[in-house]
Amino acid sequence: MNATFCLFRLPVLALKEVLKCLTPIELFELSQCSRKASQIVRIVGKLSIELDFYRCYIVINEKQFIFAYGKPKEKDVVGIRKFQNNSVNVAFDSEDEMFTYWENRITGIEQVFCYFIDVFNCTVAGINSHRKVPWEVLHFCLQITPKHELKEFELAADELTNENVTWVLENVKVTERLWISQKLSDDFNYNGKPFDAKCVTLFHSSWIKLDHLSQLLDKCVMLQLWESLWNNEEVVEFIRLWRAGKFPNLQNFILKSENLDENLKIDGLDALEDTVARAKFSRKIGDQIMMIHSGVPIKRDDGSIGQIRYFKNEGEVHLFI
Amino acid sequence: MSVENAPVVDVDEAAIPVEKKMYYRFESNDKKEFRVSELAIQQSETLNRLVEAMGYTSEDVENKPAIAIENIDGKTLKLVFQWCEHHKGEAIPVDDGSVPKIVEIPEFDAKLMDIDNGLLFKLIWAADYLNIVQLLNVSCKKVANMAQGKTPAQLRRVYLLPSDEEDEAAKRAAQEAQDPRAREVEEEFEERKRQGGNSFF
Q1: Least CB-packed of A92, A289, B29, B166 within 10 Å?
Q2: Does the beta carbon of A22 lie under 8 angstroms from any beta carbon of chain B?
């Protein structure tokens, strides 16, 4: 029986069906066969890719991983693969995990990401960065992300400047979840394009004033502001606005500030913690299970009820609707 | 039902079913004739539309010539109709767009496709032409399975993929076949370069 099959002679629809039955790593291997093969595999349609600089991998369609590592053990290497102009050793841990070996892991995973965007025109589900990533590398990855659009993004990079952060906020559309984990300079401010993300976590939010909430963060379903500078009066005003119908999308709000003290009082509430029943409420918000316990009910003017809790010692306000 | 017992037969008067089911007659490009049930035809969007448009009655089927399928030979068409008869009445699957696509190859289909890759190629071609979604799914899955655990070098051999150099050579040959003057011009250009000329013109 003939063991060969003339794949590229198939009609386009049939060829596409064959390619759709291949795993992303098999598609990658096929793309390595020739320039023509790397052009043809694109017809398979959209693959979704996530880039994680922290663990130096990409994950394709939430299932298959390609890691960038340092020097390999020679016994593990099964061959060489090309990423743009770089030829690197590769190994497999399983059919779902491929290892690539580079001098520099961060630029290595950047090259792998670039290859998949270039060959497969992937949609980018997310990019997780961290402080050791040079801004130039992160910037390049964002630049080649189709339409500069991703579902999830963690912004952190080496020597991130105010201008870099502003560029990201102006040019990158994050639809689901945005983390800005890096400390920004004290004079950072931003009043440009509103955030698109439904869930926003700012680990250093000293630049966020009450006005920003309606101007920038009105679409937020979940908002976490850490290291804020809000004082008691600003929290009281925020609650007043929320009761009056502002921030209608908000379902979970957490704020931590050193400027909050034990005198924080909300109109109409005797206490900001339930020390008796200690009821717990939890719900999936975005892709996370969020919860509040020992909160007290708080009513909005439209009748909807949430839970609020103030952690005096930590200077944290939690609002859960 | 085994592949051998699937109710697709070359025309044989004795085999015409007694019950009042609608059957259609088709003829391959090598003049092999097949009688296929109306329900089995529904697996093929192309044939289903064709017979609907023709509006044949049972008498028409018997009196008029068999419907010619000019692109497919008898050996391939027999496999196609065996598959359609076996899977008649089954729902046409809808693609959810996932990659990799999850396709199970049933035992009957695996046996049916236990064939030479040349014939498998024709079967896929026919499934595509006749728009038989699930036959296309299983036959393409069989081809995809050939890639399991293969390196690029092995894939090149299995799928007969030309190298970059071979692709370039084929492209040049095609260009030359289209324009015989191209080679002469190229040679002249190379000769002038050897002689140190900066410009061709």
Answers
A1: A289
A2: yes
